[in-house]
Amino acid sequence: GKPVCECNSCFKGPDCSDPIPNCEVDADSGDPMFLEPFWLKHAASSSLVLPGWHRMSYEFEGGSLISEELKNHIRRLHSVVGNANTDGRFIIFGAGATQLLNAAVHALSSDHDGDAPSSSPSRVVASIPYYPVYREQTEFFKSEAYRFHGDTMSMKNEMDYLSSNYIELVTSPNNPDGQLKKAVLGGASVKTIHDLAYYWPHFTAIPAPADEDLMIFTVSKLTGHAGSRFGWAIVKDEAIYQRMSTYMSLSTYGVPRETQLRVLKLLKAVLEGEGKEMFEFGYKTMANRWRKLRKIFSASRRFSLQDLDHQYCSFSKKIRGPSPAFAWMKCEREEDKECFQVVKSTANVSGRHGSLFGSESRYVRLSLVKSQDDFNLLLERMEALVQQEPHNK
Ligand code: PMP
């Protein structure tokens, strides 16, 4: 059993099973608690005890900030899952994908373009709908080396190869809509960052190993340990890897040794039986949630969900339906064009506003990766919302 210290916001009681009536359901956060039951089952093999004398030093033997053993486990995991090619690539760790994203933008920006010095900042672009942090983070750091420049599609037409360098962020599967995406821009002035946070069998079929120049992954969406703050980048070019390493050295002097130790322990548990058990649990949980949600929305003319294709998955060796982390919900009626408000005031569910992703406010993102209790409550509210439609009465 799980010792309960704190209930989720909509539950109370000694074992947190009493729902609080009329509680606002938080479907905003993408906190991946859906994997918690797997870790409760594997509590013993994933536990860690750290004596006070352990790993006190700044560095590992030889002066590295990175555990070689953890790096080898990451390579092994990618080869078992078949989702990324790590052969001959450099691997660097960061405090979550969040830190690595900025390290990568920094490393690819014009600032460093020794051969062709460029006075104008690199233009950071992404395709709508995009993960809001790309814009928020790039704007927050106010660098002279790069600026957020909005939507990739609009750049495609007006790209001025002579005056600017571009950094395109590609998220696959995409947050918020779960689509498998490819880079849109191309050519010598374009550098690409592939954010593959969700490229794991819980969320998508794995058609082939990703083989891009710069790929970013995170343990947050892999094992659910978002609080450990651990991500890694797989980098082809040595000079880019060095720039990212300098960024890490100067910003935090590496990822905490405790975090590296914990992630190693977790990956060892995942890799028992070649990862089958965790990915099977993750996929089954997500696919089940989608089945229930789709059933509810199929009765609606007022609301719809994104459509995604079935694909062959080389990991499960089956044709598989998609099971993404988020529902990208659309309000179809003109009078519902403030969809976030409609869902909030009618269903008492707080999603994430479509405009944050660069989209119309007709869209709302709903998180499907939280705990089972949270999801069940969301489902209940959505069902009630759809049942209010006149043709359903
Ligand atoms: N990229 C994407 C597309 C994400 O959705 C998230 C988390 N929501 C991140 C990066 C950040 O992940 P981390 O917890 O590793 O910082």
Structural commentary:
This protein is an alpha/beta fold. The chain has twelve helices and 17 strands. It has a seven-stranded mixed β-sheet with strand order 4-10-9-8-7-5-6. It has a four-stranded antiparallel β-sheet with strand order 11-14-17-16, with helices on one face. The longest helix has 23 residues, at 276-298. It is globular and about 70 Å long. It starts with 10 loop residues before the first strand and ends in a 6-residue tail after the last helix. The relative contact order is 0.17. The structure holds 4'-deoxy-4'-aminopyridoxal-5'-phosphate.
Bound molecules: 4'-deoxy-4'-aminopyridoxal-5'-phosphate
Q: Helical segment tally? A: 12
The biggest beta sheet reads: 7 strands, mixed
Order of helices and strands: EEEHHHEHEHEHEEEHEHHHEEEEHEEEH
Taken from the alpha-carbon principal axes, the silhouette is globular
Tell me the number of strands: 17
Helix content: 25-40%
Radius of gyration: 22 Å
What percent strand?
Answer: 15-25%
- Low-confidence sequence ranges: none
